[in-house]
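Morning!

This is the sequence you dropped in the shared folder:
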Amino acid sequence: MVCCVQLYIDFFTNIVYTNAAALITAVLCMVAIYAVQRWVNPTFKRKLKMPLPIELIVVCKMGDFSVFDLNFCSASLAVC
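The structure's back. C-alpha coordinates below.
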Protein backbone atom coordinates (compact mmCIF):
# COMPACT_ATOMS: atom_id res chain seq x y z
CA MET A 1 0.00 0.00 0.00
CA VAL A 2 2.86 2.38 0.78
CA CYS A 3 4.39 1.54 -2.59
CA CYS A 4 1.20 2.63 -4.40
CA VAL A 5 1.03 5.90 -2.47
CA GLN A 6 4.67 6.67 -3.26
CA LEU A 7 4.03 5.86 -6.92
CA TYR A 8 1.19 8.38 -7.12
CA ILE A 9 3.20 11.02 -5.27
CA ASP A 10 6.10 10.60 -7.70
CA PHE A 11 3.76 10.59 -10.70
CA PHE A 12 1.96 13.81 -9.82
CA THR A 13 5.10 15.68 -8.74
CA ASN A 14 6.88 14.86 -12.01
CA ILE A 15 3.94 15.41 -14.35
CA VAL A 16 5.02 19.02 -14.92
CA TYR A 17 8.09 17.71 -16.77
CA THR A 18 5.98 15.85 -19.32
CA ASN A 19 6.32 16.61 -23.01
CA ALA A 20 2.99 18.28 -23.83
CA ALA A 21 2.91 17.11 -27.45
CA ALA A 22 3.45 13.50 -26.45
CA LEU A 23 0.77 13.73 -23.76
CA ILE A 24 -1.79 15.24 -26.14
CA THR A 25 -1.00 12.65 -28.81
CA ALA A 26 -1.37 9.80 -26.32
CA VAL A 27 -4.69 11.11 -25.04
CA LEU A 28 -6.03 11.56 -28.58
CA CYS A 29 -4.97 8.02 -29.49
CA MET A 30 -6.68 6.58 -26.42
CA VAL A 31 -9.88 8.50 -27.17
CA ALA A 32 -9.88 7.36 -30.81
CA ILE A 33 -9.30 3.72 -29.89
CA TYR A 34 -11.99 3.81 -27.21
CA ALA A 35 -14.53 5.49 -29.48
CA VAL A 36 -14.03 3.04 -32.33
CA GLN A 37 -14.08 0.00 -30.05
CA ARG A 38 -17.14 1.24 -28.18
CA TRP A 39 -19.35 2.74 -30.91
CA VAL A 40 -18.07 2.28 -34.47
CA ASN A 41 -17.29 -1.45 -34.46
CA PRO A 42 -20.66 -2.48 -32.97
CA THR A 43 -22.50 -0.19 -35.39
CA PHE A 44 -20.90 -1.70 -38.50
CA LYS A 45 -20.58 -5.24 -37.16
CA ARG A 46 -23.13 -6.62 -39.64
CA LYS A 47 -21.63 -4.79 -42.62
CA LEU A 48 -17.95 -5.57 -42.03
CA LYS A 49 -16.48 -9.06 -42.19
CA MET A 50 -13.94 -8.21 -39.49
CA PRO A 51 -13.67 -5.48 -36.85
CA LEU A 52 -11.94 -2.25 -37.80
CA PRO A 53 -8.24 -2.59 -36.81
CA ILE A 54 -8.10 0.82 -35.14
CA GLU A 55 -5.04 -0.06 -33.03
CA LEU A 56 -3.01 -0.75 -36.17
CA ILE A 57 -4.30 2.38 -37.90
CA VAL A 58 -3.49 4.59 -34.90
CA VAL A 59 0.01 3.17 -34.52
CA CYS A 60 0.77 3.69 -38.22
CA LYS A 61 -0.61 7.23 -38.32
CA MET A 62 1.14 8.31 -35.12
CA GLY A 63 4.37 6.94 -36.56
CA ASP A 64 3.80 9.10 -39.63
CA PHE A 65 3.08 12.17 -37.51
CA SER A 66 6.15 11.63 -35.34
CA VAL A 67 8.52 11.88 -38.31
CA PHE A 68 6.60 14.72 -39.97
CA ASP A 69 8.65 17.92 -39.69
CA LEU A 70 6.64 21.06 -38.98
CA ASN A 71 9.63 23.32 -39.59
CA PHE A 72 8.94 24.20 -43.22
CA CYS A 73 11.14 27.32 -43.21
CA SER A 74 14.49 25.83 -42.33
CA ALA A 75 17.74 27.67 -42.85
CA SER A 76 18.60 25.60 -45.92
CA LEU A 77 15.58 26.87 -47.87
CA ALA A 78 16.12 30.15 -49.66
CA VAL A 79 12.41 30.61 -50.36
CA CYS A 80 11.41 31.49 -46.79
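Headline: The two ends are 58 Å apart (CA to CA).

More detail when I'm at my desk.
O.
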